Amino acid sequence: MSPTLGLRSWSPDTQIKKRVTLGLIIPGLGLTMVLLALCGYAAWNPLSRRYLDRVSFRLLIYTQVANLVYCVVWILGPGTLTADPGWQCGLLAFTTDTMLMFSAGMFFCMAINLPLVLAHNVNGQKMEKYYVLGTTLLCLICNIAPYASGHLGWDVIDDICWYRITNTGDWLPWLIGTQIVWIMLFAVGEVAAFLIIVGYLVVYELETRRFLYDTDSQLKNNTRSSAASHRPASTIRMFRNIILRVGLYPLVSCLIHLSTTVLILYLISHPELTKLNWRIDVTILALCAGRPLIYGLLAATDPSFIRALHALSHPEDESAMQSATQSRALWRSAQYLSTVIDMPPDEADHEHDAEFKKDVRTSIDVVCQL
């Protein structure tokens, strides 16, 4: 998507771009189709349905559907097999940009869902329709405007369906205002939500420990151990798996969107055609084409998805676990959250907090954010 203008003193191999993008987009398409098929079967099966009946996992499914459409349309037009300067080119570019923004918006909604549920007692199930409708409306507004104004179409520089790059530069404000700004805001919002969750977990665990310390008379004989357990460092260690899991999506989003934005802006400021710029251009296309594959791999490692598959492959274990969990009152709090993340048993460092950590392991659900 290089905005390279002017005379060309060096002619790159355009087939390399197609081979790179197809080599990334086709595996992403295959993985997304497999994931959606498995999720559909798991949601239909009564044994595994309860693991997937969660707000953030449904948002994750919406992103995978958007990525599926993104892959199909990408193969049909924007940069690979059948792209041509016809009227269909603008429609293909519109669909690709819309699906890209919708997917980024859904990951942002996944990120903010957990702070809203935990810190502000918002009902995530009621908010789900607002997540979807709000993101859809924003995506349509941001992409219908450039499409209707004729700024989406054949890119004569890269021979792809994207923005109509011209010497006047009137396309640049449209690109920044309708794509780059919003996608970067989504990524920054994911990071901010992640930091809020980390702070909430630290405060929550410290307050719980303080409550246990005040109510358990046995701790009076072990002041040093209690003081050590009140340190934020031990809290971070206790929730390290949760923090790492929640931070995966913001990390990936920032790496993909920030690097893509920086590279695009670099090419805009250096429009001359050089080998370095051409390689940067290929890198941008690779990041865009590899996005569904990367997010598909993250979705495949989602704890709720893994639990659902385990329930399907070990139905006898699932029946026994359902009988055990029905007797626990803390299960009521888990229905509002999303992706179950267990805490390893070896993290029960303090004898007096064993029961607390056991409750956390069975009731804490964490929204995954990409």
UniProtKB/TrEMBL annotation:
GO molecular function, one term: G protein-coupled receptor activity
Transmembrane stretches, start-end: 20-44, 56-77, 100-118, 130-148, 180-203, 246-268, 280-300
Topology versus the membrane: Multi-pass membrane protein
Source organism per UniProt: Mycena albidolilacea
UniProt cross-references to PANTHER family, sorted A to Z: G PROTEIN-COUPLED RECEPTOR 157-RELATED, TRANSMEMBRANE PROTEIN 116
Top-level taxon in the UniProt lineage: Eukaryota
Lineage: Eukaryota, Fungi, Dikarya, Basidiomycota, Agaricomycotina
Gene Ontology annotations for the cellular component aspect, listed alphabetically: plasma membrane
Compartments where found: Membrane
Alphabetized UniProt keyword annotations: Membrane, Transmembrane, Transmembrane helix
The name this protein goes by in its record: Uncharacterized protein
Single biological process term from Gene Ontology: adenylate cyclase-activating G protein-coupled receptor signaling pathway
